[in-house]
Amino acid sequence: MKVTLNIWRQPKRDAQGKMESYELDGLSEHMSFLEMLDVLNERLTSEGRDPVAFDSDCREGICGMCGLVINGEAHGPSPTTTCQLHLRSFSDGDVIDVEPWRAEPFPVLKDLIVDRTSFDRIIQAGGYISANTGSAPEANAAPIAQADASDAFDAATCIGCGACVAACPNGSAMLFTAAKVTHLGLLPQGQPERNSRALDMVNQHDEEGFGNCTNIGECTAVCPKGIPLETISRLNRDLLKAATRTDG
Amino acid sequence: MAENTTIPTGPGADLYTEGHEIHDTKAPDVPVEQMWDQRRFDASLVNPTNRRKMSVIIVGTGLAGGSAAATLGEAGYHVKSFCYQDSPRRAHSIAAQGGINAAKNYRNDGDSVYRLFYDTVKGGDYRSRESNVYRLAQVSANIIDQCVAQGVPFAREYGGLLDTRSFGGVQVQRTFYARGQTGQQLLIGAYQALERQVKAGTVEMHTRHEMLELIVVDGKARGIVARDMVTGEVETHFADAVVLASGGYGNVFFLSTNAMGCNVTASWRAHRKGAYFANPCYTQIHPTCIPVSGEYQSKLTLMSESLRNDGRIWVPKSGEDKRDPRQIPEEDRDYYLERIYPSFGNLVPRDIASRAAKYVCDEGRGVGPGGLGVYLDFADAIKRLGRKAVENKYGNLFDMYAQITGENPYETPMRIYPAVHYTMGGLWVDYDLESSIPGLFVVGEANFSDHGANRLGASALMQGLADGYFVLPNTIANYLADGPFEAVDDSHPAAAEAVASVTERIQKLLSINGSRTVDSIHKELGHIMWEYCGMERSDEGLRTAIEKIRELREVFWSDVRVLGVNEEINQALEKAGRVADFLELAELMCIDALTRAESCGGHFRAESQTEDGEALRHDDDYAHVSAWEFTGVGTKPVLHKEPLEYHAIEMKQRSYK
């Protein structure tokens, strides 16, 4: 296979960036998209040119480290992480644009690498159940209906990649925030902090500079884990309840 | 260093010298069931008001490091946590699929702390330390309680109680799971607990930082040198104790199921500063991975071995049989694990399943590109349970397989092949998880202690969380009770020396400007290791490997090409530092494998097998931990043997037939 890549190159944070073109030939359709970038980087290095910086770690779609906007779509044409995208999703001769996540709270650090520590700060604001080590009751003491556990699990599969933000015209991280509020709010252990959690996480979300949710749904369309839009409805209900109560 | 050593007489005697044996591991001299209580009772405690004056550095934020940082933060210590990723939530524990073992006996199927202990020691082929493994089994049940309290959404029965399943190498159902993403859910639990402490101000988080050196002052671990991977700044960080939770070294093989960034550098730097490295040759080759598809391959993907509960492994009886697997009738298939091991069948331990796959492929009966694969077939399970049930149990694994291979495993059998997955070896630690450098503790996969020569499935998550939540927070207090220690800063000669050596190394890597990319050298190293120090090892092969590794190390230091500068994000520079350390570790792995002229667990020596090709241990000569002391690159390391004594369990030759 042969492709032409237009890749965003930016030497560092706050520097001017631009798209640069690279042609690659002799690729296998079984190659992953990131392996194609590895091949490009090997070539650039042997030519004495600066390789393209991009994030990836597990390369099995679970760590959430990778994430590229490919031809204008977060994680590219198939509903998966960038590392799980293979060249069989493209055609011979394709021209492919490759860019970093674009959002103010995700500043570009170099080329295709962005800073997502804003997500960690949203979790710090309340994305947990306060249970100090050693204080836990016997695990089977409180049964949880299988359906609730399963729904909580579905929300908990969020990998924190940030595709939802990259896809949202408002640059909102509401799907990310709502996934955590839903995961913990569906479980009995999560009830004591349910109100404060929703309030604190949304406040932090806003403080980081993420935009508001206007129910466009681009986030869920690109989410590699299929986190549904209903989680945001659930977040809004919790938020409303929390805002009208004062007991935490 | 290296005083009082003797010239050994065993295999590989020309490659090492022998030092004093290790006898005291700090385990109390009481029956194994009472040791942990006794140790906690004997340990000094730190008054809660004094804890905030004490600081602890923790490198790595996986299950062991993340849970340790959260727990020590909750206890009131000042914790400085480091990870090379952009967030602590990315650590590779997240990729563990199958589950976590715990001796809850919810199934009423005869499980107990003793049975989990027994299974783990047996599974490790009697090469692990009894005292540590017993404690692991003891705290296993607490882990499940803790994780449920954090909101980890484990699988549940219709009645709302926790579900369990069985896993390779055992006959009870003690594995708790969260679909095929157990590692993710447990890590997110630890991560959230950690972030809660960041908010509380007890944990200081340093992401995109890589530890490049250990700072040892007056014989004690007192800090680290870390590189800020965004600015390139070489920083010093000091504390009263240092904990390494930096994972395993499987990426020495280049291709493994580890994440791209997993590396041995933190452990290796500590080893160079005096920490013993134990049993480096014990690596685990996981039987159920997706086969390699081409030379460009950057990593391998594991399919949880829980698949072996319902999938049946087979190859055609004849190597000539190139039919579509669905067209091959029963009588022309060889379900070789069920045939050779009738009582455990497809659930034999990992090392046995892996080697059996290698043998059928060596016989020319392998399937798929290059003949390096065997079938894992779900047709019977789908017929028996229905497609829906199979989907519920393994849906995400099937999706992942389809995504990577472009094939539908509901329709056609999966192809699998063994791949490097886990390293049982690691830095030597005592019962307190303290290394041979006082004040340096090692937890999780980075230490060697619990899995012997082979790790059972669903035991890595158990060990990581046992160490981080329940063991280390108790044992490190005993050490810190003598603190806080005298303050150290950049002006201390040990700190200045560490910074200078890091800076010099970085400049050296950037100045060689040769013709070989870092990846090309790493791949070459991987080929050497897979060929000679992989599933089967021999004296001759290992000697060849040592020669080749030494040559490749020369090539690296004279001909590697790392472009760019230090003062920016420079991923080639990061990789180069890691590969440089792998090139040193690789040699020690081969020396360790060469000197252990027996087969045990994941370490299979061609010279040591039974008549029917099974691993043959030699307990008289090798019932010990091999703890290696560093003496210099390319010079003979010193072997310290820690004899393994079994009081609660009788050593037997493993049999899964």
Cα(first) to Cα(last) distance of chain B is 47 Å
Mean pLDDT of chain B: 95
CATH architecture of the domain at 286-421 in chain B: Alpha-Beta Complex
Q: Count the E strands of chain A.
A: 7
SSE string of chain A: EEHEEEEEHHHHHHH
Mean pLDDT of chain A: 96
User: Outline of chain A, from the CA principal axes?
Assistant: elongated
Q: Superfamily at the CATH H level of the largest domain in chain A?
A: Alpha-helical ferredoxin
Which percent band covers the strand fraction of chain A? 5-15%
Biggest chain pair contact, residues each? A-B, 76 and 81 residues
Largest sheet entry of chain A: 5 strands, mixed
CATH architecture field of the largest domain in chain A: Orthogonal Bundle
Biggest sheet, spatial arrangement of strands of chain A: 2-1-5-3-4
Report on the biggest sheet of chain B: 5 strands, mixed
Quick summary:
The complex is a heterodimer of chains A (248) and B (657). Chain A is of the alpha+beta class and 248 residues long. Helix content of chain A is 33%, strand content 11%.
Any overview of this molecule?
The complex is a heterodimer of chains A (248) and B (657). Chain A has 248 residues and is of the alpha+beta class. Chain A folds into 2 domains: 3-110, Beta-grasp domain (Ubiquitin-like (UB roll)), CATH 3.10.20.30; 116-244, Fumarate Reductase Iron-sulfur Protein, Chain B, domain 2 (Orthogonal Bundle), CATH 1.10.1060.10. Chain A has 8 helices and 7 strands; from the N terminus they run E-E-H-E-E-E-E-E-H-H-H-H-H-H-H. In chain A, the strands form 2 sheets. Chain A has a 5-stranded mixed β-sheet. A two-stranded antiparallel sheet of chain A has the order 6-7. In chain A, a hairpin with an 8-residue loop joins strand 1 (3-9) and strand 2 (18-24). By secondary structure, chain B is of the alpha+beta class. In chain B, helix 3 runs parallel beside helix 6 (182-200), helix 5 packs across helix 12 (460-480) and helix 14 (518-532) packs parallel to helix 16 (571-595). The two termini of chain B are 47 Å apart. The mean pLDDT of chain B is 95. Chain B is 36% helix and 15% strand. Chain B has 17 helices and 21 strands. At the A-B interface, helix 1, helix 2 and helix 3 of A face helix 3, helix 5, helix 6, helix 11 and helix 12 of B.
